[in-house]
C-alpha cells in the first residue's frame, strides 16, 4: 500500500501544479499603474511556492515508495549529513527565499501606501454602509462639505448626511451610486464607513482595502484602461454582504466630464 | 521533578458511578470525556458544513427538513442569507474551539501526558475536572444559541467589531446570539487556562525520576509547548470577550466608535476602537492556529518513530522548531490585518516574521522527510494519517507564502484561496493528527484494536477527498476574471 500512497501523492502534486504552471487560472488583467510589481511578486511567489510544493511532495512520495514495507534483511539507515545538514539547508534555502520575497515585496506595497497622492489627484469619497456603496464628488469648488451623521436618511436619499441648506461646501457636492473616473488620472479615494466594517476590492485595479468605522482611510490609484469593473465588499458586514457591490466606470476625460455634468443635474 | 511516592499519593480511586464516570478526577477519564465532547462537536460542525456546501451547490433549492432546524432561517426549506452566515459562524467556532483545540490537546494530552512523564495523575485533579466541565458548559451555551429567537450570531468566528458589538440592529443573531457566543468562548477560555496550568505543572514538576525534559516523547513536548501558548493566548481572548459582552449588556463602547448610523439611526456609542478587537482577537487567533497544529506535529512524530522503527533525525531540532513556531506565532498575528486600515508600516513589520516562520516549519518537514530515509516504514492506519498530515501540511504551508506578503495579500485576502489554505494547513492537517493519534492510541485507551481495513478506507476517503475539496479551493478559485470572495450566500458577480 505504501507504493500506492506514493503514486497518489505524486499524481495529486502534478495535477495541482499543472494549472499553476500553465497559468490556466490567473489574475484579472491589471488596469492600474501600480499593479505591475504586485503581479511580478505574485509570479515570483508562485515559482518559489510551486518548486517547494513539488519538491517536497515528490521527495515524500519517493521515500514512502522506497522505504515502506518490511524488506527483510535490510537494516535501517540514517540520512547522510544528519539533522545539521537539514537545518543548514532550511536556513540557507528558505531564508534566502524568504528574504528575497520580503525585500522585493516592500516595493510593491510601498508604491501604494508609502507614496502620497499627487497634488492634482482627483478626490472622490466612498461611503460603505449595509449593503451599498455611495460616492461623492466635491463639485466645482473642489471641496467636500462636512458630514453630519445625525442627518443621514436613506428615505430622503441623504446618504452621507449633508446639510446643503447651511454648508456652503456641500451645495455643489455630487452623490452617486456608481463610481466613474477618468482614465489615466490619479484618484485620491477617501474611504468612510457609515455603520460596520466593509471593504473595497477591485481586482483589476489591484486594490483591496477595508473601511474602518471611526477611522477614515485613503487610497490612491490610476486606472489605465477604459471599461466597467466590479467593486465588491470583502469584509463580512451582515446578511446582505453577498450582494454588496457597485461598479467602477473608467471613462475617457470628455466622457467623464459629461457624466459628471449629468450627475450634477440630477442632484 | 517529583518522586514516585508523591505521584502515587496524587492518584484518586473512584468511589462511585458519578465520581468514576461523570465528575471524575482521573486524567484518563477526563481525557476520554474531552474526546467524546470533540466527537460530538465535530459531528455537529461537519453537518453544518454539509448544509452550507449543499446550499452553495444548489442555491435557492429547498433542502428537505432544513425548516426543522430554523423556521425563520429556512422558510420553505430554502436557506436565507442570514442563516447561511449563522451556519458558517457556528461551523468555524465549533471546529476551531471545540474540535481542533479540544481533541489533540485536551483529550490526548490529558490521557497520555501523565503516563508519558511517569506521573500518576495531573497535579490539580479538581482543576482538571473543572476544565472539562467548564468546556462542556461553554459548548452547551454556544449550541443553545440555535434555540434563541434570532438564532446564533452571523458575524463569523472572528466576530469583527462593530458588527459584533452594536447589537441586534446590525442583523439577526447579533444581539443575544453574540452574547451567547462571547459567553461561550469566555467560558471555554477558563477551561483551557485551567488545563494549561495542569499541563505545564505536570510536565515541569511531575516527571518521574530519570525522566529529564530531553527524554520526554515529542508528543509530550508538543502538549507542553501548546499549553504555554494556551496560557497566554486564551488569557487575552477571555477579557476581549468580556469587553464585547459589556458593549452589549452594559452600554460600554470598547469596540464601537462614535457617529455610526445603522438603519438611519445614530448609534449611542462613542470612543471605542474597531481595530482594538482585531488586535486582541488575532493576538489569540494566530497562536490558536499553532495550538491546533503543534499537538498534531507531536503526535505524528510519535507515531512515525514507532512505525519507522528508528528514531527521528533529531529529537532536539524538532523540539526547538516547535518552540520557535510558538514564539513566532505571537509576532505574526498582524498578517490577518494587512488590509485592515492599520498603519501600513506595521503590515511590513508583521510580514517579515510571517515569512521567517517558514524556516522552523520547513525544518520540521525536513526532519520528517530525513527520518523517513532509510526507515522500515510500517503502513497502517496511524502511519497513513501521519504521512497524510505531512503532505497536507506542505500543501497548506506553501500557500501561506502568498498570504504572508501584504502586496500579494491584496489579491487573495478574503477569497476562497484563504479558505483552502487554512483548511489544509491547520484544519485538515490537525484532523489527520487527531486520526493518527486515535488509531495509534485507541487500543491503549479502550482495550481493543480498531479495524485496520476500515481505518485504511477512512484514510483514502479523507486524503483524496480533502485534496478534491481544498486544492480546487486554493487553485481553481484563484482570482481569475474576478476574485471568488468568501462568506457569500451566493456569488453575485456579474461577469
Would you give an account of this structure?
The complex is a heterodimer of chains A (267) and B (495). Chain A has helices at 2-21, 35-67, 82-113, 253-266; strands at residues 122-129, 132-137, 174-176, 179-182, 186-193, 198-202, 207-211, 217-222, 227-232, 245-251. By secondary structure, chain A is an alpha+beta fold. In chain A, the strands form 3 sheets. Chain A has a 5-stranded mixed β-sheet with strand order 3-2-1-5-8. A 3-stranded mixed β-sheet of chain A has the order 4-10-9. A two-stranded antiparallel ribbon of chain A has the order 6-7. In chain A, α1 (2-21) packs antiparallel against α2. The longest helix of chain A is centred in the first third of the chain and has 33 residues, at 35-67. Chain A is elongated, with a radius of gyration of 26 Å. The model of chain A has no long low-confidence stretch (mean pLDDT 92). Chain B is mainly α and 495 residues long. Chain B folds into 2 domains: 1-272, Cytochrome c oxidase-like, subunit I domain (Cytochrome C Oxidase, Chain A, Up-down Bundle); 303-495, Up-down Bundle (Cytochrome C Oxidase, Chain A), CATH 1.20.210. Helices cover 66% and strands 1% of the residues of chain B. Chain B has 16 helices and 2 strands. A two-stranded antiparallel ribbon of chain B has the order 1-2. Chain B is globular, with a radius of gyration of 23 Å. Chain B starts with a helix and ends in a 20-residue tail after the last helix. In chain B, 61% of the residues are buried. Residues 1-9 of chain B have low confidence and may be disordered. At the A-B interface, α1, α2, α3 and β7 of A face α5, β1, α9, α11 and α12 of B.
